[in-house]
Design a protein that fits this description.
The structure is a homodimer. By secondary structure, chain A is α/β, with parallel strands linked by helices. Chain A has nine helices and five strands. In chain A, strand 3, helix 3 and strand 4 form a beta-alpha-beta unit. Chain A binds a DNA duplex through helix 9.
DNA sequence: GTCTGGTCGGCAAAATCTTGCCGATTAAGC
DNA sequence: GCTTAATCGGCAAGATTTTGCCGACCAGAC
């Protein structure tokens, strides 16, 4: 929460450009964060093996192992660490890959230190990787409990229905649910079994 | 709807460019999918209100409501539907927003119909981005319906509890649920509100 | 035509869940 | 000690949901 006290964020900063790396590291440090740097994926991985960090900030494009590869490796070592990418040449597919891999953010180069700091601090309060760690389900406070549960029921049924090409009998077995109950729910939730034959 | 032929994917295609819309729709149809189109977010939302679709493919940039806004709205109506964006002017932040919102994919314009089809079919078998888009909920078929719904309820409650530092009163408001009911559920599900001080 | 497998929906009893009312408990303040 | 705010849980009337039983449909097989 507060970057002032002893609970400073411990950040691993990875960038192959030494000047940028140093500059950013310095800025973050004077801003109260604990920063450890690495100029390539290999070094960064070594660093991760030593112990947990609160966040990883890495360039996407680096000689040797690229950011995505590195992030994948990092996830193996520390499954829940938030990874924040930045890149000057990010293509849409790159960003998609990164986000799928669980990136919590993606900044564009040149990275403004203040901006980076803001994002990092944001990680601190807001339930971090919430977005992907938890799924698109607990979208904010928007929907009331009841509605969400119903939505989930609908999802389960529709999914199972699709998975079994709409054969009720199979869905029944898969979901271990009473036929009458399933029928009732489908009626209530307005689920039609379009998924016809195949 | 079209229940005659196959267990076709039922796709909602949204694009303000009528020509592109028509062309893509045609291609997908001859490829065996069921397609319903909309030339703006408003129409698309109306369509969603009518019933579930298997996937939504939408342009990111549209007059009126943009794709992100639309996706958010769509999620309220159908929380689990996979949303696939495409855009020709996607900026990195756009892609980040989209992915955070649970997009399963992001294509660049011009969209090659074959490519789009491939991505859509990919959704069909292996719930692709499932891991994070959907959360740990519709994992295996293992658990029976009842159990899964309960697990989801538990998740919702625990999440909200954590989000409000264990203050029941706040959870009540957030989830719009009766206090007595929440208490009952917590007792039934064996949820304790440990979440002490921070 | 007749039979069979897969589905539906009406009905009603049984099982559950929801919720208002009320008193109890605990921690913090006055 | 007394008061207030935040929670809990017992109880019971109501509201909903779940299910078994039964008859009906429809499509394909015989």
């Amino acid at each position: 929460m507060n970057a002032s006290s002893a609970a400073a964020l411990y950040v691993l900063l990875v960038d192959d450009d030494h000047d940028v790396l140093a500059a950013n590291a310095r800025f973050l440090r004077v801003s109260g964060l604990d920063v450890v740097v690495a100029d390539c994926a290999t070094v960064a991985v070594e660093r991760l093996k030593e112990g947990p960090v609160d966040a990883i900030v890495t360039d996407l494009v680096m000689p040797g192992q690229n950011g995505i590869e590195f992030a994948r490796r990092a996830r193996e070592l520390q499954p829940f660490v938030p990874v924040l990418f930045f890149s000057g040449y990010a293509s849409v597919p790159d960003v998609v890959s990164a986000m799928r891999l669980g990136a919590v953010d993606f900044l564009e180069k040149p990275v403004e230190p203040e901006h980076l700091l803001t994002r990092l601090l944001a990680l601190a309060d807001g339930p971090v990787g919430a977005a992907h760690t938890r799924g698109a389900f607990d979208l904010s406070e928007a929907m009331p409990f009841r509605a969400r549960v119903l939505a989930y029921e609908r999802h389960l049924i529709e999914t199972s229905l699709a998975q079994h090409q709409g054969r009720i009998a199979d869905v029944l077995k898969a979901l271990k649910i009473n036929r009458r109950t399933l029928n009732e729910k489908m009626a209530r939730l307005g689920i039609r079994r379009d998924h016809a034959i195949d």
